[in-house]
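Customer ticket, subject: "Can you confirm the structure for Fumarylacetoacetate hydrolase family protein?"

Message body: Hello, I'm evaluating your service for our small team and ran a test protein. I'd like someone to confirm that this is what the system normally returns, since I don't have a reference to compare against.
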Amino acid sequence: MQIANLSGRLVIVDGDRALDVESASAGRFSSDPQAAYARWDEFVSWGRQQDVSAGKVFRTTELGPAVPRPSQVFAIGLNYASHAGESGFEVPKDPVVFTKFVSSFTGPDGDVMLSGETVDWEAELVVVIGRGGRDIPEAEAWNCIAGLSVGQDLSDRSVQFWGHPPQFSLGKSLAGFAPIGPAVVTLDEVESIADRNDLGVRCSVTRSDGSMETLQDGRTRDMIFSIPALVARLSSIVELLPGDVIFTGTPAGVGHGRTPRVYLRPGETLTTEIEAIGVITQRFVAPR
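Agent reply: Thanks for trying us out. I re-ran your input and got the following:
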């Protein structure tokens, strides 16, 4: 099952059709896309019985962030050895955790205003918590996950490296810098297509002259801290809440790690795809 945010309303999607949850459930479930996670098991049980073909046709530009207002956003830095190396850092012994403030969340297909000359891309698998808690064992972690989504950890490197040591969160939280979607895909649907522990992560750019380049091409099996390990480590310190989001890190290929460095420019389009989950598209426009 895939759930999404269509113009601010919770929907179940299949292809280009969306079933409005509040209407289809006769008010049993709210239209609020964030509210489903508080009743996740009940909602999934109901949702899997619905006929989405009866829903309306929609365009991806109508979709908002798949998880619009999580209580907590965890972003994991340097979670691929290849990315740590290109960034000039040692492979971390413990998860490097920052946040992307919720005001940066945006839909999966839209325009993003560049904040300056050093905006970079980071394709990421996003984990959405379904059942929260503290001290969740690794062996139980997948059972606590509602589903997976596609995210971009867009980053203004100038803001990120304002000081010494650098601070990550502000430079990664400008308006539109956290696109997520197109939907949250439940684990059973992911597993019908691929291995949930080994998903392809790709990112490409179409430049203003029409040329295309693959920027990142990695696999989630190469994470330093796996998804179960992240859930266990985070929940050993904080309580994970239903609807929380984890950006799990990016593989090698970011612009800041290149020689010479390369950043996003107005007129370029970024396409991010994760195997068995979906595609998001961002078009970049000049700052006002």
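A couple of notes from the result: Residues 47 and 96 are 36 Å apart (CA to CA). The helical segments are 21-24, 40-47, 81-86, 157-160, 187-191, 227-235. Feel free to reply with more questions.
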